[in-house]
Each structure stands twice: as C-alpha cells, then as structure tokens.
Amino acid sequence: MTSDHNLERDCDVISSMTRPSRERDFNLSHRQQVRINIALRGTWHAIFDPCPSLQEIDDENNGVIFRPFMEWAYEHRDPLDWTLHLSVYDWLAQSPLAGKLTKQVCREVRAVAAAQWAALDRSSFLGIAIAHSSDPTWTVAFKARNVHLVRSIEEINIGSPPSPPENGFGYFLIPSWDLETFPGWTLLNNAASQN
Fold it and tell me: 16 falls in which pLDDT band (50, 70, 90)?
C-alpha cells in the first residue's frame, strides 16, 4: 500500500491512471484514488460509448474486456490514440472472445477509428481509408472542410478493390478530397496482432 504522504502531486500517480490493477495500491479514501477512477472511467467511456457492439460483448461476458485490455495496453505501450478501437478488436481476436467478433463489430471499430483520425489528425492529409483482412469493404473518412461542416465516414465497396491488408487492419492516408489512387496498405503495428 502506498502511503498518503508520497502522493502529493498528480505526477505521482499519472502512471497508474490507465492501469486498473494499480487501484489497489492506493487508499480508497485518497484523492489520487478518485483521480485514477475518473481517468479509468473516461477511458471506459471512450472505448464503449462510440461502439455499442463492444459494450454488448462486454456486458454478455460480465465486463471482461476493459480491465484486461487496459493492463495489456499499458504493458505493450499501446498509444491509445485514434487506433484505440482497432487495438481492442485485435486484442479480442487473440482472446477467448474472438468468436464474438462479427463483421458488424469490425466495421464499427473501423468507423470509430476513422472518425477519431479525422477529428484529431493535424497533418496535411485530408482523409483516411481503413480496411481489415476479413472484409472487402473500406471505411473512408475525410476531415471537415470547414468548422461548420460535419465529417463524413462512409463504408465503401470498391468494384475490383486491391487486396485487403494481409493480416489484420491496414490504412492509407488520402492527400486530396478525392480517392484517386491506392498507395498500398500501411499495416497497424498493434502488439495484439503480433502476439
């Protein structure tokens, strides 16, 4: 148990804010415990709110996704960025819950990842296409052209598409407002798909 006097600043507990197993290292009445719970709750909502299919899988299996995934993400230094939902999917694909991963779940996590990229990316690229080796459709998202317009995320089925990524998720960035060329897939380096 960590003593209270060692936890005067947020920086003293920052490494614990995404690690559920560290909760028990702190006194339940301590304010850092509250901060850890708030941080974990925020991450829980970031994972499950935009992906009802993931929450349904979690609910059906007594909440077995969040805490183990967060431990795995911490241990593997997963960036928890726009690829968060793709990492959860890849992690689940290596778990006993792999059979619950339907095409709908795959498309949903791709849509959330594409929307996150379009909202957060600050590069000069204007769009992203994401695909999975198990599905011939692509999820394509473009950044909003101005602050008054809404981003659009679309599932597209290309007539004679290039081959999907070989294993797991792949993406490519789109430099213009049109999807004119196929530069090849960049495979995501999710540690879950490498284990």
Answer: low
168: left (phi over 0), alpha (psi -120 to 50) or beta: left
Measured between alpha carbons, how far is residue 162 from residues 9, 139, 156, 188 in Å?
52, 14, 13, 18
Percent of the chain that is helix, strand, coil (3-state, to 5): 45, 15, 40
Q: Which of 75, 106, 130 is the last residue of a domain?
A: 75
Per-residue model confidence as pLDDT tens digits over 121-158:
999 999 999 999 998 889 999 998 777 766 667 776 66
AA letter at 87: S
Q: Which of 14, 42, 75 is the last residue of a domain?
A: 75
> Measured between alpha carbons, how far is 133 from 29 in angstroms, rounded to an integer?
47
For tokens 């004679």, what's the residue?
A: 160
Quote the domain boundaries for residue 39: 4-75
From CA 130, how far away is CA 133, in angstroms rounded? Answer: 10
> What's the pTM value of the predicted model, to 2 decimals?
0.81
What is the side-by-side strand order in the sheet with 135-142? 152-156, 135-142, 127-132, 169-174, 186-187
